[in-house]
Amino acid sequence: MRTGRLRATVVLLCALFLTASGTACESDASSETDGGPQRLSAVEINPTDRAELADGGTLRWGINEFPSQWNFHHANGGLSTVSTVLTSLMPRPFRVDGSGEAHPDPDYVRDVTVEFSPRQTVTLRLNPQARWSDGTPITWRDYAGMVYALSGESSGYQVGSSIGYDRIADVSAGADDYEVVITFDRPFTEYRSLFHLLLPADYTDSPERFNTGYLDRIPITAGPFTVEAIDRTAQTLTLVRDPDWWGEPAKLDRIIFRSLGAEALASAFLDGGIDVYTLPPDPASLERVSDARDGEIRAALAPDYRHITLNGQSPALSDVDVRHAVFLAIDRTALAESAFGSLAWQPDQPLGNHFLLPVQEGYRDNSGQWGKHDPERAMELLERAGWSGGPDEGRTKDGQRLSLRYIVPRGYAPARNEAQLVQSMLGQVGVEVVIEEVSGDELFSSYVVPGDYDLVSFVTTGDGFPVSGGMEQWANAVTVDGERRWRGNVGRIGSPEIDAAMSKALTTTDRDVAIQHINEADRLLWEAGHTLPLYQRPEFTAVRSDLANIGAAGFAILDYADIGFLKP
């Protein structure tokens, strides 16, 4: 068995693309690229055949927040923690592999056919053994209910995203209740992204059930695990193997998710209180956890990137010149060096795309003049916007000081350090930044989603669907019940032109044409001053050495039934 210290050393020195000396080194966590240095693999989960795993055991899984809304499709439910938990509990017609490609999941869907004439029609042949935890069969009605709730045409539903569902004209039964015929009124090439974490029809048939049915509870499931208890006081959620699961039975008896702060997660892993958690990609955290007994760090190239989002409805940032000035004042290379410098690695260059990562087909840097570090130009733009002054005295306009509130999660040192660097950079062009630390559990629900901030940093996670997976994040506001709503676009910056380019990317069946439209949408986002991408991140997961089929999954969706402990 590999020791935790040895494994961590391999990851830290080898898997981070390149050693400090610039030479490649051997590691089972890396793979060759054409003529270049060895890089992180797409997935690093210690893949192991089920026959080599022990039956039973409890996995204690550390998480950094304890959501109240467990409906992933609700406006407040689209969090990575919610997805992590629900993937073991709820249906998904397609499973994404490490390369970002989606394939039918036979536990839920046995066959898929697609026709594009006269209209796009997707037919799913469901697994007739699939059942909800209350014994109800999973049928076409559940898929129809999802469309009814998420299409955007039914009032009262607090929906996180309608992308794709708003293009569906009809959902009906085929040969029987286990055949779903989905007819689109406009082509939707990323149809495989739909119905992930399916909800039962009883919880989509009314706004009240949709909005509150999974609030502080997970009443109905359909996966290898089911819910035993949710304890908000202890911040734990306990899952147990579902005896009625029709697929391969889960190897584990139980999974206990436990929410802790960043420092507490590391301490709990070191003292044996948790068995797995996602590490922040900072040197101090990695070095600390590398000393764990019987533990190791598994690393892969993450399907996500860090960025700074600007609130376009903030009075100070409503002017695009000011937003571009913020872009130009921030040295993104310096932020990456601060985050990864002592790991002897940093991205080759700052990220230049909101949709695609450098490892993905079609990636192009569209940042143009707005992706450079140019403090002098930043000050020119601020003057043009009417903010007079400079680095020494600050900037004012109509008697108001130019001051921005930067919201960061309390107790998360990397975010605080990053904000302090940005504070210094913006101070050099006369922009005051006030850093406000808030509870991590409330960062999104109480600050980001309501728009109570000026600047905030977080991570956008990819899912193999570059447009539909994040379209709500970039889409223009819509009018619902007479009210203008931004839904998932927490930056509150958009335009019809951006929407049109994204829509064209989803409509064409020609991959090359779709990439052209994706890059056009991205260029327009840079011109609009919406969100400053920083860098693609590596993904680190601290795991007990005897655990298999879990770790840094990249784009892949874990099969929770296969997670388990190695036989002694």
Spans with pLDDT under 50 lasting ≥5 residues?
A: 1-38
Number of separate strands: 25
Secondary structural class: alpha+beta
- Sheet-strand content, in percent, reads 15-25%
| Cα gyration radius (Å) | 24 Å
Please bin the fraction of helical residues: 10-25%
Strand order of the largest sheet: 13-23-14-20-18-19
Basic shape: globular
**Alpha plus pi helix count:** 14
* Averaged pLDDT: 90
Largest sheet: 6 strands, mixed
Termini separation comes to: 10 Å
How would you describe this protein?
The protein has 568 residues and is α+β, with helices and mostly antiparallel strands. The protein has 14 helices and 25 strands. The chain has helices spanning 4-15, 80-86, 140-150, 207-212, 262-270, 283-289, 320-329, 332-340, 375-384, 413-427, 443-448, 471-474, 496-507, 511-528; strands at 30-31, 39-40, 58-63, 94-96, 102-104, 109-115, 121-126, 168-173, 179-184, 225-231, 236-241, 254-259, 276-279, 295-310, 388-390, 394-397, 400-401, 403-409, 432-438, 455-461, 478-480, 483-485, 532-544, 547-548, 564-565. A six-stranded mixed beta sheet has the order 13-23-14-20-18-19, sandwiched between helices. Helix 7 (320-329) runs antiparallel to helix 9 (375-384) and helix 13 runs antiparallel to helix 14 (511-528). The model is unreliable at 1-38 (pLDDT under 50).
